[in-house]
Structure formats: structure tokens, C-alpha cells
Amino acid sequence: MLRLEDIRLRLGRFRLAIDALHIGPGEYRVLLGPTGTGKTVLLETIAGLHTPDRGRILLHGREITTTVPEQRNLGVVYQEYALFPHLTVFDNIAFGLRMGGERGREMKKKVGAMADFLGISRLLARRPGNLSGGERQRVALARALVLRPHLLLLDEPLSALDHITRDRLRRELQRIHRQFGITILHITHDLDEAFFLADRMAVVRNGILLQEGTPEAISRQPATRFVAGLMGLKNFIPARVAAGGAIAVQDLGHLDPGLLASPPPYPMEDILLTFPSWTVELEPDPADHALWWQGTARIRDVRRNDSQVEVELARGRSITLHATLSRREAGRLSSMPGPGREVRIGIGREGLHWLPPGDE
Amino acid sequence: MKSFRILFPVAAILLLLLLILPLANMIVSADPAILASTLADREVTRSILLTLRCALRATLAGLFLGVPLAYLLARWEFRGKSIVQGLVDLPVMIPHTAMGVALLMIYGRKFMLGGLFERLGISFVGTEAGISLAMAYVSMPFLVNAARDGFAGVDPRLEKVARTLGASPWQAFFLVTLPLCWRAILSGAIMMWARGISEFGAVVVLAYHPMVAPILIWERFQSYGLRYARPVAVLLILICLVFFAGLRWLAARSGREE
């Protein structure tokens, strides 16, 4: 559907370098990356607002690299919605239709139908300045969708909303995707958003595509420490690989390479062992075979939120471990863990993964 | 905290008084009978109309050439942008008589562009075209800077979205950008017009005749003294005040309606 090949673009000091990106028809693709990493430039390049110095962009097999934005029919929705403040909601939605030469009853019908679909019919006579964040976002979506674009490009569309409106609009985006069968490229720095919406995900950093796959696959097997950190992993333990493939993990002892989905290739000597914080158990059953390691650690910090307890632990001189417990699991402990206390912990076999060192 | 709340308003009021006092004094002390006879003086009315007309022409030229430059300064990043910005501000920095001399050395009959225009039948020395030219040079920064700030205040993503919705760059400019910053441009145009009307230095070098109002005031002051110069000055100030207040009121009213 959309294919980017060997794209290179220089904008001031920023460089975009995408070797290959392919988005299939009807796919909901999320581009995940921290703020200021070039995601918007990539989106605007696809929309035709920047012309790449090199490479090709193909839409439905047709090259559009130098096609002007007004002839691409790609819908764009920005974080702050970019609604035309001097026009009413109706005129905002009708803007693209008018540019395409539509007038009269047919145009009004299309605007009305889209406004109905997104539940904003009662707002048609109002100006964007008098709307809430959620309402503005719906208007921006309606304005883009009414043109039935080949592809909908969403630039951090939910970031400026409160969490209740954000949750509601996430479901709205899911509904739009299903009902219209439209291909969506959604950029965000929010991992929850990516997991909730994405069929597939791509991780971007400094204008470079680091990894692609389903959220689950990237989460289980991140390619680098940076990707792992972005996917919410916090446990990174230095380890060494011996000639026979045996792995010695700092302060934790030996690890059977067979527990890893793919063992590190020899002669890679220094690696990082990583595992999700939910696989770290406090006061585990000593006979639990689902654990690959058991030992003690000292609690450094405990943070609680409405559903979880996050425990930061110190093992040996330089190892920091992170455990995430549900409030229910924390309640089952013999006593609530507090900083400074020595506690017995276990690390599960599930989710064990190795990473090349470096690349913070 | 208390001193802050007192000192700033006091300083502001002081400055406003300094600004208003000479004008108010001149208007209040003007004899209505003399004002009426000045208004009947054909030389005065001709001079004031000439001034308004030439300043208007300069402003229209400013809109045509200055608005695109303002847009580029607001939207584009390019090497030497600060130098271009400095060039725009230059007429405000240098003495206007010096600017008049500089213009004479370019647009004078014996010089580069002047000779070229002369062949096309346009002369700038001692003509209305020369007055407009001098006014445009010295007052352009007011329009360009106001328009640039106006354009900079419009989110560039609005233009980008318009393009993705099918608008050409021209349509995006006229349907999105301009409706959102026309008041800033109008405000700059009013400033430019006002500055053009009050211009003396550059005009006096390039086109002493036909006599614009500031030169007429100067000449009457030099030849006959304050008593004869004052009514013309009061009349010019009153006419300008009425025009500017009217234009600003119109702009503000349209803003509220939007």
C-alpha cells in the first residue's frame, strides 16, 4: 500500500534515513519514538510536505515522491488538531471537499454524514475556539476522513488530551479503523497507545527506523537497549558469553542459554540480559520451577500507583533490579516491603532476552 | 511587590503624558477661525491631499512588495536571514535626509535607475512619484515587520493541513493564512501610511516641490513663523487622527465579528 525505499532527507541539522518501510492495506501502523526524534518529519515527508533528497515513496505501487501534497489524498491530523480558527466546524470539514470542487447538497450531505458518524453534528455552526479538546480532535478527524483518503496520518493525535478523553478517542480510532477499513499511520511516544491500537509497530530514533514488528514481538525481543527501554523494560544485567555458549550473569550466576529464544552468537562476549519487571517475584515459592534464579536483594525504593507496586532492588554492588507487582500480589506478601529491607526474590524464565551492549 | 505595582504605571502614565501633551496643547490652543481659514487655503488643502495620496501610493506599493518579503521572513529559514532583516530595518536607523541623498543618487536623472525610468517617461525628482518613492523607502519597515509578526503568529501546520486537503499554495495562503493575519497587515499598512504622511527628510531632498504638508509646515515656519505654521500642523494632525482612528475602529470591529 505505502512503501518507502531508501529515503534520505536533511532538514537543518536533522537527518531522516529510512531504508525501507512498508505499510499494508488496511493496516494500523504505529510509529513509536521519543519526542523530537523525527517522527513528524517522516509523516510530513509521506504527506508531501518535504521532498526527500533521495529515495522513493510509492502509494499503491505508484511513485508519489515528488507529487504535491494536494494531489496525494492523504489525511493528516496533528497533535494540536490544526483546525482553521476562522472557519466554523462545518466549513472546516467542508474545506477539502470545496478544494475538490464539490458544492451544494452533495457536499452538505457528506459533511453531515461524517459529523453524524463522529457525533459532532450539534457543533457544525460553532468555531473551533469554542470546542473542547476531544471535540476538536473529532472535527480534525472528520475533516480528514470526509475526503476518504488513501491513508490517514496521525501525528500524536491523543497527546494533548486528558486521560478520560484519550481513552474514549482511542476506542473511537479503533472504530474508525474497523468501520472504514482505512490504512492508518499513527505516530506516538505513548507505549500504551501503541499496544492498544497497533497491528504492527515501528520504532524510530533520530530519523532512523530501529525495529519493526507486532507490539508483542518487539516487546518480547527488542533489538537494542534503546528499544527495550522504550518498550518499558527496566532490567538490564551485564553478562558474559563463554566459548561453549555458557552465559555468566553478573551477580546472578550462570544462565542456561537454552532459556533464551535465540542464544547470542559467538564470539559476542559482552551482552545485556533483560527481562520484564513483572517476571521478578518477591518472596517466591522456593519450589517454583518457572523461576530460573532465586536469591536475595535489598529493597531500595517502593512506588505505588492505583493498580501496581513498583519495587527497585539492589543486588551486589552494581545490579539494580525492578519488580512490578499488582496490588493484589503485594497484598499477599507476609509484610509490605519497605526500603532497606533484605528480601528473597525470584526471576521467571518467561521473557528472558539478551541484547547487544551499549546504545542507551 | 508594592513598588512594582506603583512604579510601572507611574512610568507608563508619564510617557503617555509626554506623548500627548505637545499634540493636545497645539490642538487646544488652535483658534477655530484661523483653522477654518487655513482649511479654505487652497495651497494647504492641495498639499494635504497630495501628502495623503502619495503616502497611500507608497503603502499600496509596500503591500505589493513588502507582504511577500514579510511572509518569507516569517516562514523560510535561509542563510543570511538576519542580514535581510537588518536591511529591512535600515531605513529606521539612518537619518532620512541621508536616505534622501542616497535615493537621489540612484533615482536622479543622471544616475543609474533614474536615467532608465526617465526613458520610460517616469521622473522621480520633484514629482509625486519621487515623493511616493521617498515615503515608501522610509516607511516600509513598519509594514514588513508588522506583517512578518502577523504571519509568524499563524501556525504553519494550518497551511500544511490545507495543502493535504487539496489546497494549492496560493489557496492555502489566501484562504487560511491571510484571513488569520490580515489585521496585522492592515495595522502595518496604517503605520506605513502614517509614517509616509509625516516624512520630511527624504522627501525634501528628492522632491521639495510639489510641496507635501510637512514641507509646507516647515516652509511657513521658516518664512512667516510659528503663527502661520501652526494651523497647517493642527489640520494635518486632526485629519490623520480621524483617518487612523477610523481605520483601527473598522479593523477592531471586523475582528470582533469574526
What oligomeric state do the depicted chains represent? heterodimer
Helix content of chain A: 25-40%
- What's the number of structural domains of chain A? 2
Corresponding CATH superfamily of the domain at 42-214 in chain B: MetI-like
Shape of chain B: globular
Q: Characteristics of this structure?
A:
heterodimer, A: 360 residues, alpha+beta, Rossmann fold, OB fold (Dihydrolipoamide Acetyltransferase, E2P), six-stranded mixed β-sheet, five-stranded antiparallel β-sheet, 25% helix, B: 258 residues, mainly alpha, MetI-like fold, 12 helices, 84% helix, globular
Structure overview:
The complex is a heterodimer of chains A (about 350) and B (about 260). Chain A is of the alpha+beta class. Helix content of chain A is about 25%, strand content about 35%. Chain A is built from 9 helices and 20 strands. Chain A has helices at about 40-45, 90-100, 105-115, 135-145, 165-180, 190-195, 215-220, 225-230, 325-330; strands at about 1-10, 15-25, 30, 55-60, 60-65, 75, 150-155, 185-190, 200-205, 210-215, 235-240, 245-250, 255, 270-275, 280, 290-305, 310-315, 320-325, 340-350, 355. Chain A has a 6-stranded mixed sheet, with helices on both faces. Chain A has a 5-stranded antiparallel sheet with strand order 13-12-11-14-20, with no helix packed on it. The longest helix of chain A is centred in the middle third of the chain and has 18 residues, at about 165-180. Chain A starts with a strand and ends in a 5-residue tail after the last strand. The mean pLDDT of chain A is about 90. In chain B, helix 2 packs across helix 12. In chain B, about 35% of the residues are buried. At the A-B interface, strand 6 and helix 2 of A face helix 8 and helix 9 of B.
